[in-house]
Specification:
This protein is α+β, with helices and mostly antiparallel strands. The chain contains 14 helices and 24 strands.
Length: 578
């Protein structure tokens, strides 16, 4: 097998990988700015220079020449090479800054040139604390600046579009943003203008940077030149926790990071997953974070003779259970939800069957024309495929509406959805039907008609599994705390986060930011117990493990197997094991 020697350590490789990516894959740090694994290689920042040589061969025989010790003689290239554009060859010898003073000097000099006209505004820059230029300047740059002249000034606070702001003075011309619009999104809305030290990215004349993926250039920018209009100056990187999660506004299940400060989600950024969304996220998914913070009902509601009022969880569970047992399973319409996790829908199915009923299905949420064949989908739900694999299909809205109006049901038990908004029935239709509304992430149109409203945790506050449209099962963990968090839910939260276990004595703690809600996998067993049904599980992990053992198409989706990147499930079609 071909071998390459990097800093006196031999590595085997296959194919023709690029040197920089090979080093990064093997934990060898090489400073770089313009290189990105998903885009073309311009090799224009020159920060990844290395010293490269090849074995010296006899011109006549082609044999490798050796020294007196039998070691191959190495002829190094006359100039340093950019590792990002150099493909590996058998016998290649590479010296990085760790083993070559010449390379270390070149790296330091290149950094000095990049910093000549760069403004010294790290204290007010949004990128401070996670800026590759800042980090590498400390690691590999000169200790001070020898530049004693006026810096070149460029436009500042330029609004390229509705979501991205440019500070051209910070730009180091890596061209990542331009290559993204040319090669990934293909909108071609950015280009480099001017020449020499005065150039920077800009939209063509008369154009606005308003493509649906525009905010991805903020992520790929290695400095603070491109920032978010929405997040600009809101928080520092070290003030927030970063929790892996997925996007639940569509069927793609794109991987993301939820950034939380003081128990509020402040932004959403992409989490790389080559099997789902690679490195990217649509803007609409990034800007959806405020639904985790605002317009959130807090605490259960129960309707009595004097109207709807707040109640304790125990009283709400008891009231819901009495409604269900009085009506019986056959007179109760159980509605699952493609918005809820696999575990939640499975528990609803178990509850319905225990009471002698069945789950009618889930409400479809499809916006024809929204999808773009990439990360945006027509289906607005994150778990329709997971429901189908549990044997729960979409309901026929027209047929179900006729049955409701015909008096076929006395009770409607809704799992994490809004049937009034979905058009299943009008609010007036609910005067003769008891409604247990079990999902009030935000104030919705069915809430006012609910006999019992049980506010459920959002994807940012629960743990569970979603299956995307490509049959990939992915699990989530809570990013923010809820009021009265259970030991099970606390176990899934990061222990080192500053905003996880706040007390009233902490200056940053704000109890109002903790919503009085519970995960559906906690609510459903509690209602079942009040109704005389045992659905007790230690937590969602055990529920998912039971699902994996019960349904063949979930066989690979154990909690431990999914980890953070998910697992690909078998072909669709539910086969329940015996």
């Amino acid at each position: 097998m071909p071998r390459v020697t990097i800093d006196n350590t031999a590595f085997e490789f296959e194919g023709r990988p690029l040197l920089l990516q090979f080093c990064l894959d093997h934990g060898i740090e090489l400073a770089h700015f313009c290189y990105h694994p998903a885009m073309s290689v311009p090799a224009n920042c020159r920060q990844c220079l290395v010293d490269v040589g090849m074995p010296l061969r006899d011109r006549a025989t082609g044999e490798i020449q050796t020294d007196s010790d039998g070691e191959p003689l190495i002829r190094f290239f006359p100039k340093l090479q950019t590792s990002c554009s150099l493909a590996l060859s058998d016998g290649m010898v590479v010296h990085t800054p760790r083993s070559s003073k010449k390379v270390a000097r070149a790296q330091r000099d290149t950094m000095e040139f990049l910093l000549i006209n760069h403004p010294l505004d790290c204290p007010i820059c949004d990128q401070a604390g996670h800026c590759p230029l800042q980090i590498q300047a400390y690691k590999y740059g000169p200790e001070g600046s020898r530049f004693e002249f006026h810096k070149t000034h460029k436009p500042k606070k330029v609004k390229l579009g509705p979501r991205v702001i440019l500070d051209a003075e910070r730009c180091i011309n890596c061209t990542r943003c331009v290559r993204f619009t040319d090669e990934i999104s293909k909108s071609h809305q950015l280009t480099i203008i001017e020449r020499g030290v005065k150039n920077y990215p800009m939209t063509p004349p008369g154009a606005t940077f308003d493509e649906p993926y525009s905010m991805n250039v903020i992520d790929v920018c290695p400095v603070g030149a491109l920032t978010s209009v929405d997040f600009r100056f809101r928080a520092r990187i070290w003030e927030m926790s970063k929790t892996p999660s997925i996007i639940t506004t569509g069927a793609k299940g794109s991987n993301c990071w939820l950034w939380v400060r003081d128990n509020l989600v402040l932004r959403v950024t992409p989490r790389p997953n080559p099997d789902v969304n690679k490195f990217w996220l649509p803007d609409v998914d990034r800007l959806d974070y405020d639904r985790f913070n605002s317009d959130r009902p807090s605490g259960p509601l129960v309707r009595g003779l004097n109207g709807t009022a707040l109640a304790s969880w125990d009283d709400a569970f008891g009231h819901a259970a009495r409604i269900l047992t009085d009506a019986g399973g056959m007179r109760t319409l159980f509605l699952a939800s493609a918005m809820a996790t696999v575990e939640d829908n499975y528990l609803l199915k178990r509850l319905a069957e225990s009471l002698g009923g069945t789950v009618a299905g889930f409400l479809p949420h499809v916006e024809v024309g929204r999808g773009d064949g990439w990360l945006l989908t027509d289906d607005l739900t994150p778990n329709a495929e997971g429901c189908r694999r549990l044997g729960i299909d979409e309901v026929d809205v027209a047929l179900l509406r006729a049955q409701l109006r015909g008096g076929s049901f006395d009770v409607v038990y809704v799992l994490e959805d809004d049937p009034v908004r979905a058009g299943l029935f009008a609010a007036d239709d609910l005067r003769t039907i008891a409604v247990v509304l079990h999902h009030t992430h935000t104030t919705n149109r069915t809430l006012n008609s609910a006999n019992v409203a049980l506010p459920a945790a959002t994807v940012a506050e629960t743990a569970g599994t979603f299956v995307n449209q490509d049959a990939r099962a992915q699990r989530v963990v809570p990013a923010k705390a809820v009021r009265g968090v259970s030991r099970t839910l606390r176990m899934y939260m990061g222990l080192s986060r500053a905003d996880t276990h706040g007390t009233p004595f902490d200056r940053w703690h704000n109890e109002a930011h903790q919503i009085n809600c519970r995960p559906s996998w906690d609510i459903l067993p509690a209602v079942a117990r009040k109704a005389g049904v045992d659905l007790t599980y230690p937590g969602p992990k055990q529920v998912m493990d039971e699902i994996a053992a019960t349904f063949d198409t979930f066989a690979d989706a154990t909690w431990d197997a999914m980890q953070l990147s998910g697992v690909q499930l078998a072909e669709a079609g539910v086969t329940q094991s015996t």
